[in-house]
Amino acid sequence: MIPSSLYPLVTALLSNVLAQVGKTVVYYYRTGKWDLHWVIASGGFPSSHSSTVTALSLSIGIQEGFDSAIFAVTTIFSFIVMYDACHVRYYSGKNIELTQQLVKDLREMTGLRFDDPIYQEKLKNVLGHKFVEVIGGFVVGLIVPLILCPLFL
Q: Nearest 5°: CA angle at 87, between 86 and 93?
């Protein structure tokens, strides 16, 4: 039997891996193309940030009790991470998109040359998640600890 002390760690890590692999499957379903880049990508459905922290919180609640201080701490931590993934990081990506479009428009409209290397840098637009992607990760994070519970406790 696996030590019960590893239950939160294993569920959190497994939820993360399942969500990351799930992104590849979802991408294939949407496009008909396999792109293994999604296994390590941020953004996309389901959110691995959400799945990881949800699994951690739920497994701590199951193991230590839902009235424990550590469950309260991990739950607040989870809410902060999911809020950040859905709002702060998502809108940071949108700001990158807007900035890149403005630079492109200025080049085309005015003929300005942007010689500074910073304008040539390729920035990733998808940093965060849409709400539905966070919910998808949340669901993954609920399922994994419930399935693994009999193996540990």
A: 95
